[in-house]
Amino acid sequence: MSTSTMPSGRSVARVVDGMPAQDGAGVKLTRMIGQPKLDVIDPILMLDRIRSDDPKAYIAGFPPHPHRGFETVTYMVQGRMRHRDNHGGEGLIVDGGVQWMTAGRGIEHSEMPEQTDGLLFGFQLWLNLPADEKMREPWYADIPADRLAAVEPAPGVSVKLIAGTWGEAAGPAPERATRPFIADVTLEENAPVDLPLPDGHAGFVLPFSGTVALGPGESAEMVPEGRVAVVEEGEGSLRAVGGPDGARLLVVAAKPLKEPIAKYGPFVMTTREQLMQAVEDYRAGRF
Q: Which residues form the Pirin N-terminal domain (predicted)?
């Protein structure tokens, strides 16, 4: 069965606005997930969107800082991001590339952004690790744009697949217990497609250009650029139809861990005691 004829069983649970924020050395961004209106979509801990044509808004970047207990996925729609960490990981992604970092038991890294053709535009996603993997060895990899799987599942629809599967295509991201599905989907005006979210996964759709109708039939909800549509958990795909000017979407889903979450700044563990240990270990230079 082709993707375009799969049953479309899911709907949008709610739509949420992002919140202006600053991070790193004063980098201005919009926090879409991990904010008062939308804290966590288990196992998705955070989503930041950065878009600016003003270097002063981001040029100081994200100087060395620690993480433990989760993963970061950085997707640069346009622009560059330079990574360096204390475990020997180093890389530069450019226009359409991805950085995947598993903090595991502890890592300290820096991320320095640069624009291309006058614009810096990208996303950073935080994905939780299961309790029994939080202290795994840190890991890092660049995934250049030309390694993303290109899919054309229906007329007027094109996909850049980062993680998970779409039909016979598979994204280049590493396999993880949360089985993430991450795709950049472009829809022409009125073009329909069924987003193949894995059964039982929790997730969201964020239009970053244009407007999209999400959900089955007459119950579809119009979601404009810059808002997060939280998808109800369940089975089946989610119908998406491009609006009057088409749409471009970040689509993310992952398997819920259903475990306690204890957060403190750059550390995400399962208990308060583990958080205190993370702070102590970092201060003692054990990362």
A: 27-127
Residues contacting 272, CB < 8 A, separation 6+: 262
Q: Is residue 87 part of a domain?
A: yes
CA dihedral (169, 172, 177, 182) in degrees, to 10, reads -70
> Is 109 assigned a ligand-binding role in the annotation?
yes
- Residues in Cβ contact with 74 at an 8 Å cutoff, skipping those fewer than 6 apart: 81, 83, 93, 98, 99, 101, 111, 122, 123, 124, 125
Q: Where are the alpha helices (DSSP H) in the chain?
A: 272-283
Is 50 within the bounds of a domain? yes
Q: Domain for residue 287, yes or no?
A: no
Kindly report the CATH number assigned to the domain that includes residue 239: 2.60.120.10
- pLDDT digit string (tens) for 166-211? 999 999 999 999 999 999 999 999 999 999 999 999 999 999 999 9
Instruction: Name the token pair of 258.
Output: 């259903």
* 197 in Cβ contact with 182 (< 8 Å): no
Provide the domain count of the chain: 1
Domain that holds residue 96: 3-272
Burial (CB < 10 A; 0-12, 13-18, 19+), residue 15, is middle
Report d(CA 4, CA 277) in Å as an integer: 49
With contact defined as beta carbons under 8 Å apart, do 238 and 274 qualify?
no
Residue given tokens 């139809």 in the structure block: 241
Does 196 reside within a domain?
yes
Confidence of residue 25 (pLDDT cuts 50, 70, 90): confident
**What mean pLDDT comes out for the span 123-145?**
97
